[in-house]
Amino acid sequence: MCGIVGMVGNGPVNQDIYDALLLLQHRGQDATGIATAEADAMMHIAKGQGMVREAFRTRDMRALRGETGLGHVRYATKGEASREEEAQPFYVNAPYGIVLIHNGNLTNTRELAEEMARRDRRHVNSTSDTELLVNVLAGELQETTSSELLEPEAIFEAVGRTHARIRGAYAVISVIAGHGLLAFRDPHGIRPLILGRRPGATSEEHDEWAVASESLVLENGGYEIVRDVEPGEAVFIRHDGALFMRQCAAAEGASPAACTPCAFEYVYLARPDSVMNGVSVYESRLRMGERLAATIAAHVPVEEIDVVMPIPDSSRPAAMEVARRLGIEYREGFYKNHYVGRTFIMPGQAVRRRSVRQKLNAMSLEFRGKHVLLIDDSIVRGTTSQQIIEMARRAGAASVTFASAAPPIRHPHVYGINMPSREELVAHGRTIPEIAEVLGADHLVYQEIEDLRAAIVEGSELTDLDMCCFDGRYVTGDIDEEHLAWVQASQAS
Amino acid sequence: MCGIVGMVGNGPVNQDIYDALLLLQHRGQDATGIATAEADAMMHIAKGQGMVREAFRTRDMRALRGETGLGHVRYATKGEASREEEAQPFYVNAPYGIVLIHNGNLTNTRELAEEMARRDRRHVNSTSDTELLVNVLAGELQETTSSELLEPEAIFEAVGRTHARIRGAYAVISVIAGHGLLAFRDPHGIRPLILGRRPGATSEEHDEWAVASESLVLENGGYEIVRDVEPGEAVFIRHDGALFMRQCAAAEGASPAACTPCAFEYVYLARPDSVMNGVSVYESRLRMGERLAATIAAHVPVEEIDVVMPIPDSSRPAAMEVARRLGIEYREGFYKNHYVGRTFIMPGQAVRRRSVRQKLNAMSLEFRGKHVLLIDDSIVRGTTSQQIIEMARRAGAASVTFASAAPPIRHPHVYGINMPSREELVAHGRTIPEIAEVLGADHLVYQEIEDLRAAIVEGSELTDLDMCCFDGRYVTGDIDEEHLAWVQASQAS
Amino acid sequence: MCGIVGMVGNGPVNQDIYDALLLLQHRGQDATGIATAEADAMMHIAKGQGMVREAFRTRDMRALRGETGLGHVRYATKGEASREEEAQPFYVNAPYGIVLIHNGNLTNTRELAEEMARRDRRHVNSTSDTELLVNVLAGELQETTSSELLEPEAIFEAVGRTHARIRGAYAVISVIAGHGLLAFRDPHGIRPLILGRRPGATSEEHDEWAVASESLVLENGGYEIVRDVEPGEAVFIRHDGALFMRQCAAAEGASPAACTPCAFEYVYLARPDSVMNGVSVYESRLRMGERLAATIAAHVPVEEIDVVMPIPDSSRPAAMEVARRLGIEYREGFYKNHYVGRTFIMPGQAVRRRSVRQKLNAMSLEFRGKHVLLIDDSIVRGTTSQQIIEMARRAGAASVTFASAAPPIRHPHVYGINMPSREELVAHGRTIPEIAEVLGADHLVYQEIEDLRAAIVEGSELTDLDMCCFDGRYVTGDIDEEHLAWVQASQAS
Amino acid sequence: MCGIVGMVGNGPVNQDIYDALLLLQHRGQDATGIATAEADAMMHIAKGQGMVREAFRTRDMRALRGETGLGHVRYATKGEASREEEAQPFYVNAPYGIVLIHNGNLTNTRELAEEMARRDRRHVNSTSDTELLVNVLAGELQETTSSELLEPEAIFEAVGRTHARIRGAYAVISVIAGHGLLAFRDPHGIRPLILGRRPGATSEEHDEWAVASESLVLENGGYEIVRDVEPGEAVFIRHDGALFMRQCAAAEGASPAACTPCAFEYVYLARPDSVMNGVSVYESRLRMGERLAATIAAHVPVEEIDVVMPIPDSSRPAAMEVARRLGIEYREGFYKNHYVGRTFIMPGQAVRRRSVRQKLNAMSLEFRGKHVLLIDDSIVRGTTSQQIIEMARRAGAASVTFASAAPPIRHPHVYGINMPSREELVAHGRTIPEIAEVLGADHLVYQEIEDLRAAIVEGSELTDLDMCCFDGRYVTGDIDEEHLAWVQASQAS
């Protein structure tokens, strides 16, 4: 889980990128980085641990000079968080000087790493798939071009060859020193990327452009939405504001029709005020609530339920719609604390698990003696749901029905959503009644897979989605048991 | 605006205080500090700028050894933020070694500062009223005691003499090295303070105690609520867990009956899951909504309103109740971004104002073509409300009715809630229709003063409140025009 | 081993104190601190680890506003280095606000610590004798004065009472907020302190004053030397430049005639370009060489020696004089590296001892085939001398005669010179031939005790010295075997 | 002015490189960097401002894993000091991953920068000639090799092509990831580089190798000196300890006979205990003294001189020899303070020039009434000499004769010794009597150019030297007036 943004402006872009990263902070809070390029090709990079607010100091921002730039926020997997070598953006100086960030996950990193040393003779100094990616792109740019001046043609050919070499899900933003900003999206459009335009303030100024993971970043910055970058498509924006776009992955079957975005963006990850692939995230969540209501009604004696409550924040729209459809009162019984901290390891003290209560607290008035229906966006490990249900009971709930706006998660996610290993998923190898028992719920209802799909695609041009962790179907076609076992083994180490 | 917590435990309290500060973070995000004391009287202090998460490093935490301690989060007024000398806790080494924090505001600081140099011959190295307070207390302790061992009697007498010397609103927590933790509250109970108890884990362990600004901190830490500290009352908890309580401000008229807590805690400041002075903050907000609904119905054609929406997060309960009472649908049309950042000042660039949109965004679907009723907790400067109303209109609202769960703010607040100067308050010197025009609202409704009072005190033993910024009545009796003019002048500098 | 400086100026003193500390850096390189006071009594303190160059940043210096101030450099004993609580200056806020530094060592800290808690009810938060000292002084000031304004009389009485309570060696500089700078010296004048005056630049400006451990600091700053502060004497300089001096330890037998300064200042610690107690350090070292030459001639076949060499830097004058007196050629065969670093502890690696060679290297040309006479200022543990002798042999020396400008060190030093415990002193319990064998020297010559005394006092008004580590005589009269055993035990822990 | 070191060991090299840098600290104190490579080709880099002691923290050192590595200390020219982009080492990731440092100065940077963008399409993100150098080498390696495995042949060919493209003075150390350590020296051998070998500790261990700017680093580390790297020669040491050497600049006329090392190394820069190009620095300085004595005798009435004194530290050997040859007593009248600090710029205060006295102080005893002959290694701007002469007079000198062990500096130095621009050189455009007048010396004597050359080359295989700043002859043949004007203009900006 990452958030990315890139900009080509008329003036300095550092503060704009910083502000954009704050708006993407929900997509990753473990590390962040910004790179900018000046017209004379000088590049500046600043990276830091933690949230945007913590990571950049005034002197970092002052050094980030330039009218073209990009930024990244990162959700780190276990153990990665403090390794500076893994932090994006990544820079290579040949050819041209390229800095690159991506959101997603490459699935053929083993092959790429081997190829990189053998064929490309490029040094990779981390285990990051982003470093592989920038080197694949750099290697291909070296092959497709031979002049100092880089033509859009050559860039697009290099992107095409990059698509041919890499597998997985990726939305990429890159700055090529002295030239401009390049962005492209994987052939299945699994990870999001959207383009916006802001007219120059004066007649001397060119159009300003931004690409980002989510549309609200563009809107907030005063950009009009141009459209989503299509699956397999590349966008190149020259320093002078000239825009070039090209489908570069036709050979990999990419087309707008073949777009299968990650369902998790709608379920949980994206902000509700974003529109992705033509689908309003907020509205899709309302529809998830609508369909979930029907499933709940089919399985649970709804007339006994006194009140519907969301687990804040992301399940709020679905819960509100469930309440409306079922004609049950909607209340907010949980208060969410947005301030997170750390657990320090003291010599001679046992490490303590910080309880869910540090993040969520129940208002007794809303629970006392009531039969409550709690709506969450999804259930992963189940430990949080378990604690929430217990909290509701301690607050006096007469009974707790729990409903998930997403179907059971039974398979690994390999396209850039951080998930625990299969064995840790509560739904892995369990029936719904078995899960209910683990969670301690009186009733447990899950969204149907087809309902989730329909709730998202309804009214859009989308026909399918990546729903791999629900249905075990991997759209890139290269994921087999051997791969999943390797993923599992890598996580364990 | 500050949050405070103190603990006497059987083991190290550093992580517990840290966790408590995270739960109080909403009360202040500009600076924070922790102090701990070991059984042998060694004290350790760590302070830092910014949020709790940013301010403390592992090595700070490791140095904070000891079984007794206290913590503070601070909301700084303009210009103060970066002055380390102002950061709490404050320490004086004579007599005994005292570390102290407080939430509130002293109103006779001019007299105290003068007295301090002349009579007490104590050095005050900041403009902080907390430094004055710790020195008044230290000076009185020096007078009331003469032995190495400090008896509760002597401590309570010193607190009594401190009450006699200081004016204003204050909830104080202090650690006296080698002795224990002392907490006390101003004679009017303006600022909150509550006591909790946690039984020792084994028969060898004594009871553990905590005092804090808000009850949820105690609950979250597994403490049972004992009760609010009463106006003028002092609590002394020896290092060995023995508890002593005493009313120390009878001379100043303090009594449970004379408790006039700050109404702003209920309106805006406190977490909804806290109970203060016997009043559930959450329930008081529901009642504010109930009463506000009646006022709205009396002034606005409610049948034309399509939807009620809160300005998240604190107005949510009131808004939900308004919707229910008026029989209008409740929807969440605004998304609140909880990640805040900074605006960097770049050489040669103008300073930019960060728009409200960085924090709040409107979901068009909920606004398009609708007559909306927006509920906020209060209106201070009016600039935010103005931008929100404009945002609603741009999102397609057919009309915007705006309602404030608090009455018009027309007077300075001198008891520890940070407010701009009188001239900057939008309601200062304006009628409600004039304010509506400034805000750009089609209709504007304010809670009645008596309704706010009733909503808060209803069902409790409270009979009155401090509502100075609404009604201009100052319960401490020492605030006159000269004082307010001096406050204004100090702010301006 | 510490260096101290204090100044009362017409303008800001921060940079002047900083520059003075650089000149005192040879007296301590482990920690440093500066405190300044403004005319309105605001005080500012900055402390840091390591050398002056490393410890203070621009923002520290900017915060050190004020026309009166003091500074300290510290040589830490084992384990102390990284404990921030031990860092000077120490501050107490009652009475008046006092900041204090000292050079030396108190010998009755056990009694003082006990008294402090019991009688003075003052909190001491470290094991530093400086913190005890500032509290004794503060306690006495509280007793001797009762008004806001502090008269020199009262200050001097408090200093007198302080002398009566503390034992040991101390040169103290203190700033009393709102009043001025106070400095005083122990009744035996063991540690140095000297006063300088700089006329104001204009007729509006008052005289500026400085006190420091060494005269070169004053000279370098453009101050004319007034004179050494006498044993037991106190100097008080008001913020307005008025100077007051008083003998405050007559009761303890202090008088100019009773001055017994530490011989080690002349042997090793002080800079050669300083004059202390009327004795030029440089000239005393020349005389040490003169007398050492005679002793060498009496014990060693000097006609066989080809060349005399110093162990740089402090033995250079003595060596040059030895060469001249013996008529042997003087050469510099060792090169000293002034850049010191750290040995990092790596996981899984053994700690390595950094050899003397990292600091000292031999020029083969000067050693090859020659009979060399090496002169060092003193021999403590003997390990360095051993390695130097071995280095000389590896460089080709035909024979190595080693001479120490100081007598054998056989007793603990309790007056502020850091020494290992008795057992680690190579001369403890060994005859000179036994020491020679341990060191691997062909011949070993030590200065006679009386010769050292004579070399230092010659031509001055001094009649005696503190030479405790050579002769086991402790001038303060309170050191017995029990005390020495306690010191030893404290060091071991 | 820089110092460099590289090592291939059997175990971790981080601490060894750190220790080596401390020994090279005299060659540069403004910035430093270390890079290491692990057997699996992972590389680690740490850089910092200031001295070695300040720049590296424990966590930096722990991250510097690997058995091959290199280190650098830097003397920054004006304005450069704080620019992180300029800090060595520089890294490029294609091909192979190369990290590189150098000591010296390239003279054709303008051409190289242009070529780099146009022909090599490599991005250069600083104005550092080191970044150009690593990119030239990388570009040539890419051309000369095509396989994953890099043969010594290919490396040497790439070095040869690098020699052909770059001009100036350079001693280079580089690590090629997964392969080993490469070092080479410019075709004229202007800057020094020497190779050492340390046998493995066990039969399983291979030989360990080190290359460094100065021999004392090797000796100190326990390496036996193999020999100087020859002009134009390259050394490649594989990770497994295998050594390969090759002359790579025969085309540029490089040969041992054509070696013209920089005379300034002997005059001032190198440590006396180093041997460079077969010449002991210490002995060459003695010979400089010997020859200077003759010149002094020829120009000055030596019988009137009472005493000879060095300006510490580097002129000590020359001064001692002057004294011996002239039969005049040698004394040390100046004390040098080795602790340097900063001058802080305070708001509203004028910047103060720190006087020479902060670094050097005169012992009056040695000057009073005496006719002194002061010996310095060289005279650059003359401002320091001027202040020293004044200091001697104030200390009581009857007359001051000043002699420089190096000839007048009248031309720019373009091979890596930092010098002010021509106009700032006191000898530029002045006769010796005119200079004497500027300095305020009674007599002024300079070493003759031929004497300096003879003093250095005597007894070695060297026949010539680079003495460009004395004689205006530039051995690389590419320096003309246009170039010198460009250098001057660059410095000014």
TrEMBL record, chains A, B, C, D:
SUPFAM superfamilies: N-terminal nucleophile aminohydrolases (Ntn hydrolases), PRTase-like. Residues 2-240 form the Glutamine amidotransferase type-2 domain. It catalyses: 5-phospho-beta-D-ribosylamine + L-glutamate + diphosphate = 5-phospho-alpha-D-ribose 1-diphosphate + L-glutamine + H2O. Transmembrane segments: none annotated. The active site is at residue 2. It comes from the Bacteria. Pfam families: GATase_6, Pribosyltran. The keyword DNA damage does not apply. InterPro entries: GATase_2_dom, Ntn_hydrolases_N, PRTase-like, PRTase_dom, PurF, PurF_N. Pathway: Purine metabolism; IMP biosynthesis via de novo pathway; N(1)-(5-phospho-D-ribosyl)glycinamide from 5-phospho-alpha-D-ribose 1-diphosphate: step 1/2. Binds 1 Mg(2+) ion per subunit. Mg(2+) binds at residues 314, 376-377. Keywords: Glutamine amidotransferase, Glycosyltransferase, Magnesium, Metal-binding, Purine biosynthesis, Transferase. Its cofactor is Mg(2+). Its EC number is 2.4.2.14. GO terms for molecular function: amidophosphoribosyltransferase activity. In the C-terminal section; belongs to the purine/pyrimidine phosphoribosyltransferase family. Catalyzes the formation of phosphoribosylamine from phosphoribosylpyrophosphate (PRPP) and glutamine. This is Amidophosphoribosyltransferase. The gene is purF.
